[in-house]
């Protein structure tokens, strides 16, 4: 059985860039330690937008350009990127169907024992991807390490953790 760690959108724009927060900066050392100590496969996702971001539905609702492909803000922070062993899964929206399909394929090849998610933002992309993972692999235990996540606000972080707990996602 294999265990999977998903590192969600630990990109410069979400840490200390266009949409960064002090809470996001604070979790980087926890995320680094989690990745270094994890005994299993580590996958990274990367929020990816084009130059037309402001014309998209997301851009109209959140008119802050961020994670534009090829920019410094789009890059995974250097400290964590140095630990990455596989290509990131680029995603154009909050949740990644590609991630769900990839995990289902991996599970078919070798059963997955557990899937843990960490990253940014708890209340947008972490919860979206946790729900996708749960939908694709309902019998695999899904966990979120709260000490390695940060939300848009501390309150929305806590709300997202509570919502995931209601959906049988273990909060550690």
Blueprint of the fold:
Layout: E1 2-8, H1 12-15, H2 22-37, E2 41-47, H3 57-61, H4 78-81, E3 89-91, H5 97-109, E4 112-120, H6 122-136, E5 142-150, H7 154-166, E6 170-171
Parallel strand pairs: 1-2, 1-4, 2-3, 4-5, 5-6
Describe the sheet with the most strands: 6 strands, parallel
Count up the domains: 1
Low-pLDDT residue intervals, each spanning 5 or more residues: none
Fill in the CATH topology.
Answer: Rossmann fold
Instruction: Identify the CATH architecture.
Output: 3-Layer(aba) Sandwich
Shape: globular
- Count of helix runs: 7
* Mean pLDDT level: 98
Helix content: 40-55%
Measured on Cα atoms, how large is the radius of gyration? 15 Å
Which range does the strand content fall in?
A: 15-25%
Q: What's the level 1 CATH class?
A: Alpha Beta
Distance between the termini: 21 Å
CATH superfamily descriptor:
Isochorismatase-like
- What is the β-strand count? 6
Structural class: alpha/beta
Q: Which series of helices and strands comes N to C?
A: EHHEHHEHEHEHE
How do the strands line up in the largest sheet?
3-2-1-4-5-6
What does this structure look like?
The protein is built from seven helices and six strands; from the N terminus they run βααβααβαβαβαβ. The protein is 41% helix and 22% strand. The model has no long low-confidence stretch (mean pLDDT 98). It is of the alpha/beta class.
